[in-house]
């Protein structure tokens, strides 16, 4: 079976020109089939403020009302996605920018009944791995923006880490899948301010302990949960940058 690399890249990397160029050099050099999934929250916040639209966050997550959904659609599906595609084409990578509505690759439903109403936020129901495989077999490199749709015309803002894990799972029948979460730090760190304190491997018991000790916090908690979930669903290897996640 052919191996595939799914690389998810966080907001801070795609939004700084130098780190984006480095990331794209690295991504372009990966051999074999590959998929890039990107965030873009900081650009969305900046664009919203330029348009006079207020950004509301609850527990580090964006509240997506109708005006904010327009902003994230423009920024994730447009600006960030197309900039990445153009820069990959410049590197000879045949990138194709997609959101979840394109070719119906990512179906979701609007989250309801949660304690906090995050608005137009999607929970993924289905990823069309077969269609992605068809594109990958043609040598196309999908670049996926964190937007899904409900099949009835509604776009939904959706967490990019979750999209990466779900996309990786949907490709398991066709490839040996390697999933990498790339973000601005070297990996999971004992001290988030010290890149030298890299933890090389994390198992589930380590995760529980690191969380209870407060070493792993904020955005790293759902990232690691997505990583363990992906491993349980047959993904061969999962990395958070240089940290390898073990069952
Ligand atoms: P992304 O850039 O992919 O959107 P997030 O912001 O969701 O990433 O999560 C990454 C953040 O998690 C880091 O920027 C860091 O502030 C935080 N974090 C919390 N605990 C740790 C840890 N132990 N090691 C590294 N980062 C950590």
What does the secondary structure layout of this molecule look like, with pairings?
Blueprint (H helix, E strand, L loop, with lengths): L2 E7 L1 H4 L2 H13 L4 E5 L2 H10 L6 E2 L2 E2 L3 H25 L4 E4 L7 E5 L11 E6 L1 H9 L3 E4 L2 E3 L5 E3 L2 H12 L4 E7 L18 E2 L1 H9 L7 H13 L4 E4 L2 E3 L2
Parallel strand pairs: 1-2, 1-11, 2-8, 5-8, 11-13, 12-14
Antiparallel strand pairs: 3-4, 6-7, 9-10, 13-14
The protein binds adenosine-5'-diphosphate.
Could you please describe the fold and organization of this structure?
The structure is a single chain. This protein has 247 residues and is an alpha/beta fold. It is 38% helix and 23% strand. The protein has 8 helices and 14 strands. It has helices spanning 11-14, 17-29, 41-50, 66-90, 129-137, 160-171, 204-212, 220-232; strands at residues 3-9, 34-38, 57-58, 61-62, 95-98, 106-110, 122-127, 141-144, 147-149, 155-157, 176-182, 201-202, 237-240, 243-245. The strands form 4 sheets. An 8-stranded mixed beta sheet has the order 5-8-2-1-11-13-14-12, sandwiched between helices. A two-stranded antiparallel sheet has the order 3-4. The chain has a two-stranded antiparallel sheet with strand order 6-7. A hairpin with a 5-residue loop joins strand 9 (147-149) and strand 10 (155-157). Helix 6 packs parallel to helix 8. The longest helix has 25 residues, at 66-90. The two termini are 22 Å apart. The chain binds adenosine-5'-diphosphate. Residues 10-12, 39, 183-185, 188-189, 192, 215-220, 223 line the site of adenosine-5'-diphosphate.
């Amino acid at each position: 079976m052919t191996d595939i690399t799914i690389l998810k890249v966080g907001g801070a990397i795609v939004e700084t020109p130098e780190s984006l160029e480095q990331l794209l050099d690295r991504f372009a050099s990966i051999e074999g089939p590959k998929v890039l999934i990107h965030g873009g929250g900081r650009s969305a916040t900046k664009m919203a403020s330029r348009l006079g639209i207020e950004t509301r966050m609850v527990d580090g997550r964006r509240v997506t009302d109708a005006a904010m959904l327009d902003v994230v659609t423009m920024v994730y599906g447009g600006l960030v996605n197309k900039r990445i595609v153009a820069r990959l084409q410049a590197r000879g990578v045949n990138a194709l920018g997609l959101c979840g509505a394109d070719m119906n690759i990512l179906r979701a439903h609007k989250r309801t009944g949660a304690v906090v109403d995050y608005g137009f936020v999607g929970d993924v129901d289905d990823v069309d791995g077969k269609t992605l495989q068809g594109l990958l077999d043609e040598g196309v490199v999908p670049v996926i923006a964190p937007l899904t749709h409900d099949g009835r015309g509604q776009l939904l803002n959706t967490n990019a880490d979750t999209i990466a894990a779900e996309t990786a799972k949907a490709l398991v029948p066709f490839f040996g899948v390697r999933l990498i979460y790339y973000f601005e730090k070297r990996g999971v760190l004992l001290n988030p301010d010290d890149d030298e304190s890299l933890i090389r491997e994390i198992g589930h018991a380590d995760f529980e302990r690191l969380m209870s000790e407060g070493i792993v916090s904020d955005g790293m908690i759902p990232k690691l949960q997505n990583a363990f979930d992906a491993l349980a669903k047959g993904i061969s290897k999962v990395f958070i940058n240089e940290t390898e996640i073990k069952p």
